[in-house]
Every structure is written in C-alpha cells, then in structure tokens.
Amino acid sequence: MSSYLSLLTTRRDFRLLWSGASVSVMGDSMTFIALAQLVMAQPDGTARLGVLAVCSTAPVLVGGLVAGPLLDRFGKRAVLIADSVLRGLAVASIPFMAVVATVPEWLPFLVAAVYGLLKMIPMVAVPAAIPDLVGPRDHDAANALESVSYSLSGIIGFALAAPLLGMLGPVNVLALDAATYACFAITTALIRNPLLPHERTPRRRAPLRSSVLRDKALVGTTLAFMAFNIAEGALTMVVAPWLAKERLPGDGAALSLLMAALSVGELLGGLAAGAWRPRIDRLVAIAAVESVAAAGFLAVLGAPNWIPVAAGFLLIGTFSAPMTVWAQSLRMERIPASQRGRVFGVFRTMMQATPPIGAALITPMLVTGDLTSAVIVMTALAALPALALLLLRERTRQPTACG
C-alpha cells in the first residue's frame, strides 16, 4: 500500500486525474439505471429498454476508434475536459427539461447515445496520460490504481443508485451525475501538465500498421485479452444469471453474490499487481495469471453448490486483474508516445467489443441446459491464449551475447 500512498501524495497531477476519473465513474454507474427508470415509466417501457441498450452501446465502436486520433491531435487534457463538459450537458438536459417543461420521451435515448459515443474517451485518455504523469517504475502502481478505481467506483455507484433513486428520483440522480462530470472537468483543468500531443521524431513517422501492429507482444496480449473477454462476457452476461435462476438457491441474491465475488477478486488482484512487480518476463507473468484465472471457470461445474461457484468467480477476478495492469504497463513501454492515443483507442475498443460475442456463443448451449459444454468452451477461450503467449515468448526471446 505504501507505493499507492506515495504515488497519490507525491504526484499531484496524477492524483487530480485519478480522483476526478473515480468520481466520474461513480456517476456513470448511476446514469444507465436512472435512464432505464425513465424509459420504464414510458408506455411499452419494457420493450423500449432494448432500444436504450442499443443506443448506449452501438456508438461505442465509432467513438472508440475516433477517440485515439483526437487525443493524439488535440492533447489528452483538452479532450478529457471537452468530453466531461459535453456528457455533463447531455445528462443535465434531462433535469433541465424537467424544470422548464417536461422530459420528451426521446431525450433519454439521445442522452444514452451521446454517452455511448463518448464513453471510450476517458477509458483511452486516462491510461494514455499515465506515462506523462508518472515515471516508468510507477507504471504498475498507477495502472493498478486505475483498475481499482473503475472497479470500486462502479461498485459504490451501483450500491448508491438504488437508495438515491428511491429518495431523489431518476431526474435528480441524473443531475447528481452531471455534477460528477463537472468535477472531472475541474480536476482535469487543474492538472499543470498540459498533456499535449508528443512530437513525432523521424524514427517514429512510420504508420501505425508498421510501427505497432508488427509488435508481436502487443498484438499477442491484445488477442489474448479479446479471447479472455469473450469467456468472461459469457460468464457475466449469460452464465451467472442462468445459474442464479436455474441451478443456485437464492435467485437474485445468488447473482449478487457471484458478481460481488468477481468484483472483490478484481479489487484484490488489482491492488496486488500494483504493489508487486513481477520478477519474470511480463509475457510469462501475464500468461501465468491468465492460466490460473482460466481454471476458475471450471468451478462453475460445482453448481448447485454455490460455494465452489463463488470461489471460482473470486479466482477469476483475482487473477484477471493483474493481466490488465501488467499488459497496460507493457503497452506503455512499447508504444511510441506520439501514438499512445490511437493505439490505446484501437486496442481498448477491440477488447470492449468482445464480451457480447461470448454471450451469443454460450446462450444456445444453456438453452438446452448443457452447462458442461459452456464451461469447456469458456475455459478453452481463457486458457489457450495463455499457452499461445508462452509460445510467443519463446519465439521472441533474444539470444544473449557471449563473453
């Protein structure tokens, strides 16, 4: 913990970026729930929830691919401020309309679309800014704090959403979320480092395709993450709700328990990854923790006993979090500073797009009640990339010079 405290106390600009992002993520966790409540109150509200989900997710791919070039062109601080202002105004439009008139039925869908379009900007800009704010030795700790921030702020936001919606109503909760965007804009504006685009030296003028996409370590870890996210997406989006309904006692309580176990594991794993720097090669370390996380999927076969299943979710969370931290540090070390925005944008968008694939892949198996096949597929998707990373490490190992 001392490395985290030292980083937060001695690196003012990083502290401002991290605290503002944490508050904003907390607000984000309440936004969709509040928007869903507004839509549910409309005629045919249940049917319109699907439209709301599409509006909030479909623009992510476009926004993610555009975010990187914007960051590399205009600078990370300026783009983060603009993003916070635009999304804050979009969310604030609903409480504003509630005060001056009535909220149009179409407005929650427009707000969800704006949110989805701009969602990837902080997810790309924050990690891309970290190397500009902390030294290489602090990359792991800073990346761990970012990972923990997303997990913990999300948990707090979801936990607060229910009581706040009951006390304030969805319109006032959205006003509170707009305030969190204002907070992020202010903390980012207070950062002294302008986070301007890096100049491209002649050696770095190679196009993105040749300078980065030929890096086997970067491409290999990204593909491994995409495969793992397919498995984890299937687990969280389909298998966990199905287990809670069909195999585990407690229904909704069982689902909450499983997701809580996964989140607690992610917090523990993220904290451990930042405090402990692996002494082995990063590719080997990532492959090792991914292999252990893959074993957690097998615990799902312990149903209807919820203890091994919850332990599996905890294991997956604990050992998947270091993958994120160490792979992000690896990217920071290998991606040219002038291309960080574009590369983080492309890679993170690719990884964010894969979880629904897992849901589509596994659902037909659960329709027939074939949990065993579903578990085998998820385990293979999580484990085989780890083996591929080890083989990649052997192929890219540089021969040592003799005497």
TrEMBL record:
Transmembrane annotation, as ranges: 51-71, 78-100, 106-126, 147-166, 178-196, 217-243, 255-276, 283-300, 306-326, 346-367, 373-392
Domain Major facilitator superfamily (MFS) profile: 1-397
UniProt KW keywords: Cell membrane, Membrane, Transmembrane, Transmembrane helix, Transport
Secretion signal span: none
Subcellular locations according to the entry: Cell membrane
Membrane-related topology note: Multi-pass membrane protein
CDD domains in the cross-refs: MFS_MefA_like
SUPFAM superfamilies: MFS general substrate transporter (SSF103473)
Gene3D superfamilies tied to this protein: MFS general substrate transporter like domains
Protein known as: MFS transporter
Organism: Nonomuraea purpurea
